[in-house]
Each structure stands twice: as C-alpha cells, then as structure tokens.
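Quick check before the chapter quiz. The format below is the same one you will see on the exam, so make sure you can read both the input and the output lines.
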Amino acid sequence: MEWLNKNSSIFVLSDASIDEYLAILFIHSLQESKKISVNSVSIVNADCIADPAIDTGWKIREYLGLTNEMPLGLSESRGWNPFPWAYRNDCVTFGQVDALKNLPSNPNWPPYADGDQMLIKYLEQCGEDEAVLLPLCPITPLTN
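Here is the expected output.
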C-alpha cells in the first residue's frame, strides 16, 4: 500500500453497505496523519437501495462537516445484487442511527450528482499521475 505514504487523492466506489460507510470514515480519519484525502465517492446501486444510500452518505458528510470537501454522486451503473434484500436495507438502517436521523437531507437532490462523470473527471485530472481507486463494491462503473 505504497499510496498511503505519499500525497494521494482517492476515488471511492461504494455500494453503501455499513462496512463501506465505515471504510470511508476510516480513510477520512487517516487524512490528518497521512497525506491522503478522499477525492469523491460514487455510490453504485448494487447491494443497496439508491435513494436511501445516497441520503445516508450525505448525512454522514453533514455530521462530519464534509459536504463540500468530499463530493458524493450516484453511478448509473447497476450491479447484480448478489446479497439478500435484508443486506441491501442496511443503508436505510444506518441512516436512522441517532447521530444521523435528524440531520437534513441534501436540499438540492434529486437529481443526484453523476458519479460516473465524477469518476471520468477524476481520471482526467490525474492524467499521467497515479490514480488511486478504492472499489468497495463491484467495479461495474469501470467496465462501462
């Protein structure tokens, strides 16, 4: 994990399960001790329910005060839902924890930011430099 030891801007692909929300929080916690940052997060509608998943992602950013520093979008790519329905409901449950449930939703949504365009922009900005992608879900947006 050489990228952890240098300035890195990470693009995260997530399908909004609890472990993925926690992974994003963990990476964010490394920002102060390392020279890394989360450039953007694109939620892939694979093992989640798109609307509550992106709303919960927004509320996490709102709670941390990161709504401007960590853009969030929704990919048009569609995963195949390999997990049972109850698993996909985790994004709803997590959005109702005490710390998040009373936070406001993004007043400008829908429509959501285009996660695929965010990924393209990130890759274009990296140019010849190293791009750091962290797929926490199916890599469907990379194959489309």
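If your answer matched, good. The beta strands are 8-14, 36-45, 72-78, 132-135.
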